Amino acid sequence: MIGCIAAMQEECDALLEYCNEVELVSTVPFKLYTAKHHGTDVIIGLSGIGKVSAAAMTSFMILTYKPSLLINIGSAGGLDSKLNIGDLVIASMCAYHDFDISAFGHEINYEKGWYVFKSDETLIKKVSTLSFDQMHVGPMVCGDQFVSSEEVFLQMTQRFNGVLATDMESTAVAHVATLHQVPWIIARSISDLVFDHDNHVVFDEYLKLASKNSARFVSSCLDLLAN
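Now predict its structure.
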């Protein structure tokens, strides 16, 4: 069984459209659907927004359903000027941009920072072979903040070398999955560009597009990894 975790209903519904035999099996503590994807058993969970919600969902899914792989799906904010709305970002590694113990001499970056999680290189190489327009593989960050200010954007890009995108759940999923030794993939589509003015308005406009693009890629991943 492969587990997929989305923060928002739109992101969850976009993947369910690629599945059949969909059954809502839980609403408390989380909304969870079992389904078939071209014969592959999948469990799709709606975590809610934020790191704690994502971590709790990931733990619950792993302990209850014991998936062989976890995929975090949905939308993200673009941090690199080469990105466009709808582009897909696959995380090569991820970290928390809001985890700060620098007062004790610890740096906030990928190189020496705490809680930096690297994707399985073999798995990433495999999914990177999928044909998908405008796919980027690179670092991501997450935190409990919708990033829209130039000050925060500059701080993040200066601290995290080469960072492509940010969201509010992915690193928490990777963190818990790593603790349980479950392989993971972060596959997010760009819903807004943080360096643009009023990106919160753009997010509302393009959430469905980003959800559909992420789900389309994950559907292809499920086909590839089920073989």
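The helical segments are 9-16, 51-65, 121-127, 150-159, 170-179, 199-226.
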